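RETRY 2/3 - previous attempt timed out on the joint model. Re-submitting the same 1008-residue input unchanged.
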Amino acid sequence: MGSLPLDASSSVRPLDPEAFAGDSHAVVEFLAEYYRDVDKFPVRAADLEPGRLRKLLPNSAPEHGEPLEEVLEDVRRDILPGLTHWQSPSFFAYFPMNASAAGFAGEMLSVGLNVVPFLWAASPAAAELETVVVDWMGKLLGLPSRLLFSGGGGGVLQGSTCEAVVCTLTAARDRALAKLGHEAILKLVVYASDQTHATFQKGARIVGIPPSNFRVIPTSAASGYGLPAGAVRVAVERDAAAGFVPLYLCATVGTTGLGAVDPVRELGEVARRHGMWLHVDAAYAGSAAVCPEFREYLQDGAELADSVSMNPHKWFLTNNDCCCLWVASTAALTSALSTDPEYLKNVGTTTTGNKPAAIDYKDWQISLSRRFRAIKLWVVLRRYGAAGLRAHIRRHVTAAKWFERAVAADERFEVVVPRKFSLVCFRLRPSRLAGNDAMNDAVNRELLTAVNGTGRAFMTHFVVDGKFVIRLAIGGAMTDMQHVMDVWDLLQGKADEVLQRYQL
Amino acid sequence: MGSLPLDASSSVRPLDPEAFAGDSHAVVEFLAEYYRDVDKFPVRAADLEPGRLRKLLPNSAPEHGEPLEEVLEDVRRDILPGLTHWQSPSFFAYFPMNASAAGFAGEMLSVGLNVVPFLWAASPAAAELETVVVDWMGKLLGLPSRLLFSGGGGGVLQGSTCEAVVCTLTAARDRALAKLGHEAILKLVVYASDQTHATFQKGARIVGIPPSNFRVIPTSAASGYGLPAGAVRVAVERDAAAGFVPLYLCATVGTTGLGAVDPVRELGEVARRHGMWLHVDAAYAGSAAVCPEFREYLQDGAELADSVSMNPHKWFLTNNDCCCLWVASTAALTSALSTDPEYLKNVGTTTTGNKPAAIDYKDWQISLSRRFRAIKLWVVLRRYGAAGLRAHIRRHVTAAKWFERAVAADERFEVVVPRKFSLVCFRLRPSRLAGNDAMNDAVNRELLTAVNGTGRAFMTHFVVDGKFVIRLAIGGAMTDMQHVMDVWDLLQGKADEVLQRYQL
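RETRY 2/3 succeeded.
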């Protein structure tokens, strides 16, 4: 069929196996060095100005390719000093975002194979591994079988809780609108607590729920900042009486601010009674359910949930991103999110008959394209096993207990809310500031700024009942007891300085 | 401060640098071997049954960790044979999903550093690199400066076009509802062609646009299956007259089915006149704009666009996932998608004053958490340079031209729509079947099944004007002229067999 045309570009061989291996080995060494040295960086460089990196880099991409060594040198010189080092063992901010050797290996397989399991046919083993691994996870965490494929439900790996919330809100909304007509969208109401993650409100907004139909139920210290089911019931009944349609209730196991736990069973009963979708967001604390001693929070009432989500990418040694979403009714999800254009019609979806159904995961999420996340989570579960993952969780809980006791034993401090997992919320409360809330907040802000300013640790804050609270979220893959002891030493030293400055 | 408590789990060291390096090097070798051998696998195993992998794997996660070698051996034995091999040089289905040594290296850096640039402060250099790299990309593709940070707009890296569509639809919707009130959501209308990707309809549904307000404008061979601006204008005027609110128009440069190009400038003028948001989806063909000879499709009229998206993860050597989204009004996007809970308040966002603003990318996307995709795209641009990327694109376009000519020169076949990029749409059209459309379709279905059944290539189909069409989407990182010549030989041989069977 004719000769090869002249091809000036035959030198482009972007997947040459030897060149690939050479470059990739160099990056592995670069990262190993980074992990060896990560505790030498300021956890968060305190003196950065927005725009610093932009000034260092050229205004446009290079015309010609550059050697990997130069790229890595630029990462070392220009980028690393400007990062906040989430893998530092002294990173205690937000929630942990675990990296691990197994998570990395799994992600490398995902990225290297680079298959796209949006349809079963588009990569059968990738889609099926996902069904296997979400069942494995559900069993490990003690979820009821109705949320697992093996029990008639099913799961999917998404990128974030936000995605999971948007998908389940869409499913709940369309289930309601199918009965009521689309104009009822103006009447749909969703419920959460004042501790629920902001992503829920954003998700509700994205799917078109009127912002004025977003009910925020107050919590208090009396319920440990959990969402009181009685208050939800009152709100729901009031809305129903006013002609609104209660749609969706979001319960959280391990809130972002304080690690609070909502009473899933009681909330589930309210949801059932009013035909609402109950979603349980266990983004952070869901990982702890791998340990029997933490399982009840998620398990008690989970059989009333329409959906449950948790993030192995937080505290479960699975590099970002990976969010497990389980649903009791897979049809509710897929009937809201399915599309069936001609260019995606394929054997798997059209000839299953009474054989096991092929899963087309495009109908379980927002996007069509997706990554082979299942292999990452599968490698993590294989490499560490349930026992290793329990040990990982317990190591941090042990450290958090120790820290909580240390804080409680220091009369200058107080623990603001009893710790449940590995998040400790505390503040300075010098006795001479009793009654002076503004000054007390100022002292705590100053303490946090002073500690973070050293670069030797990074923590973030929260405000509850008007009080400024410091959060120590323990969970880094390299974080162990010594780092927690060190940060307590640091906190005590800076507390001395701040209190002295305020003459307290 | 007391002694270390007993910690039975001190053996869990998931980021030990030496163990990390050892495992990661092993995975690199595994993948290099995979790339060496990928053309020995059937591109798509034709005889797989749904449920095969599930039967091979245990029902639950192991209690104890297992060696990496065992895991990799299971990947080799159980998983690889069940994959569709998107990196095979003979994968011509859907659109390409490029892997490359640089894309992999960049993703390794992203995954290894595992920082989360949702806020500027949460990893300043990561957020800033993203602003730099989206400007680099925009300049490379010839986008107008109003879509770049350097010209008052800005960009973000998301996971998929679907996400970009949901975000921009939300922005457009909320801009309209801010004026009209939320009840106007029932009146909002969106427009696309019958060739627009199904993800647009799904996105519109997710954000709460009534499905009955989704207008599908027919295309035809006369316009090369591009969306006729005149027909859009008629539809928009009819809707406006009927009290609807024209909201959003999606134009595509390089449709999924046929690679058609909508007339962006003319559509932009209609959109402007009626106050609609114009989004340009260049998911696949946007990559070609790196070459001046393909730039006009995207460039001509792009200054009228409110947003443009394209996927470096398709044909731009950037491993999945990576979608560039540029917007002219960053405020429209962020005012629809921003949240500002207490636990995310931080220095960068509150003290910029008249310094360069810090970008909090959480307000540019659906999710809060996100990956450091910028470093991946940056490594690709650095390693290959504009010249290398042009050569990559031209190599495939050259091969597509050759294939198109070969098809046209064979009287048994026809090219269904003139090729613009690297997608060739063709079919068997034996003269004796003239007028017998059903039989002609059957012959083509059979040809596609026969070719895919060999495992030596994988293509997918499309249906246009009722005709079954075979798509050859050229673009794999390892695909070169020889593979295209081979698939043409294969097609000719199978065509002989099929036509003989039908006695044609």
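Residues 1-10, 350-356 of chain A have pLDDT under 50 and may be disordered. Closing ticket.
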